[in-house]
Specification:
The chain is an alpha+beta fold. The chain is built from 7 helices and 5 strands. The chain is 42% helix and 16% strand. Strands 1, 2, 3, 4 and 5 form a 5-stranded mixed beta sheet that branches. A hairpin with a 6-residue loop joins strand 2 and strand 3.
């Protein structure tokens, strides 16, 4: 499986809604790359990968000994679906750039008073409005190269991701 084929497969991959997480189609153990869109599928928001530094042999060993434990794409997408900002850059971006700007003054007061949790609002936003595609790659290095190409606009189908472009939009 080459980077070009992984990129082509991602462009044609099935679209899933975060509202339907967990997703039985995401392998419990695998490296891969994924792309996230807004609710109507018109705005490409984010590209990510999982399995950094893992070889195909590492992944096969993990798969054999996983005992149902998630690694790679399943773990990463689950973290995104949770809406928890701690340790998840995607959730931080969603909160900062998409959730907070839409909060009312009254909601911001409730955040300040501890009555409204930004993680809860982020989870609602993700679950109610975002969709994703993913493809499995043979290694973490392949996933990283694909992610980099997409961030830099080398996949014409997507354009630059709104939340994490590799280069400045012109």
């Amino acid at each position: 499986m080459t980077e070009a084929s992984a990129l082509d497969r991602l462009a044609e991959a099935e679209v899933f809604q975060f509202a339907d997480w967990p997703n039985k189609h995401v392998p419990l153990v695998c490296a891969g790359v994924y792309a996230i869109w807004d609710d109507d599928g018109t705005r490409f928001l984010y590209v990510g990968m999982s399995g950094r530094g893992k070889t195909s042999e590492d992944i096969l060993k993990r798969r054999a000994g996983s005992n149902g434990k998630r690694f790679g794409l399943s773990h990463r997408l689950s973290a995104h679906a949770s809406g928890r900002r701690s340790g998840d850059q995607f959730c931080v971006y969603v909160c900062d750039r998409l959730v907070i700007p839409k909060l009312t003054t009254a909601q911001l007061r409730r955040v300040a008073d501890g009555q409204l949790k930004l993680d809860d609002e982020t989870k609602k936003y993700i679950r109610n409005r975002l969709s994703y595609r993913f493809v499995e790659t043979k290694s973490g290095d392949e996933a990283l190269r694909c992610e980099s190409k997409i961030k830099n606009g080398e996949l014409d189908t997507f354009g630059l991701p709104f939340l994490n472009p590799g280069k400045s939009p012109t």
